[in-house]
Specification:
two-stranded parallel ribbon; single chain; 251 residues
């Protein structure tokens, strides 16, 4: 199935941008005074007639990450089917179609999705929270080695690396076993592919999802459906908001 998927697919992952008048509407207490809120959102979509997908933070991480934590150790992602991650999810292969390395959109998905999911693992959470002090860096190094961190992530400059740097090196690497496919920029091809491969998921910006609502639908993430209201307010988890101010309105 994955061979077919790669052969027919061209994917576009675009940055969604939804602007709203500055206001404090979010339970995350995001405040933008004298400016405009720009919300960038990533959605995980599958074919409209396919089964619904509802993901928790850790579900999302387990679906897309190269390494996961099992019994306190880093291991290559063993989860091949959605149901391997969560028994409530379909018993279908994980086939995610996303942007290649270097894409700012891929980075957004990692920052607002995988990083939050990784924090559900206590060893990764602890690693990230070591302070940036001599002792904190030494403790982070010891913890990373105990977890089985790769030499690439350990780095030649490991004596000066922080827990945050180790954390990001681990978490920012996406799976390489065919569960994640790096693809191109043809959005029409991704939609066609999703209709041919019903349990494959594609990564889109919200505006593209809205334009193709008769063909694809977004996954619910942390019990929140992606729509204009949840994106602008920041309630939808895969959203990054920025306050844009005119120079004349700066304090």
């Amino acid at each position: 199935m994955r061979t077919k998927l790669i052969s027919v697919l061209g994917i576009a992952l675009m940055l969604g941008s939804v602007a709203a008048e500055a206001q404090s509407r979010s339970n995350k207490r995001f405040v933008c005074r004298g400016g405009e809120v720009q919300a960038e959102a990533v959605v995980i979509a599958n074919a409209f007639n396919s089964p619904n997908i509802t993901l928790g933070a850790l579900d999302l991480y387990k679906a897309f990450a190269h390494q996961v934590v099992i019994q306190g150790r880093l291991v290559k992602n063993p989860y091949k089917k959605w149901s391997d991650i969560n028994s409530a999810l379909p018993r279908n292969d994980i086939e995610a179609l996303g942007p290649p390395p270097g894409s700012p959109i891929r980075q957004l998905l990692i920052e607002v999705g995988l990083e939050n999911g990784a924090m559900e693992y206590e060893p990764l959470k602890t690693l990230r929270e070591f302070p940036d002090t001599d002792k904190g860096r030494a403790d982070a190094k010891a913890a990373a080695i105990a977890m089985g961190i790769s030499n690439d992530c350990l780095g030649a400059d490991y004596e000066s690396r922080t827990g945050e740097q180790y954390f990001k090196c681990i978490v920012h690497e996406l799976r390489r076993d065919g569960g994640w496919v790096n693809a191109g920029n043809n959005s029409h091809a991704i939609v066609a592919t999703l209709q041919q491969v019903p349990m494959a998921v594609g990564i889109f910006d919200y505006s593209y999802l809205k334009q193709n609502a008769d063909k694809i639908k977004g996954a619910v993430v942390l019990e929140v459906e992606p729509n204009e209201e949840t994106i602008v307010s920041g309630e939808y988890p895969l959203t990054k908001r920025t306050c844009i101010r005119d120079e004349k309105n700066k304090d």
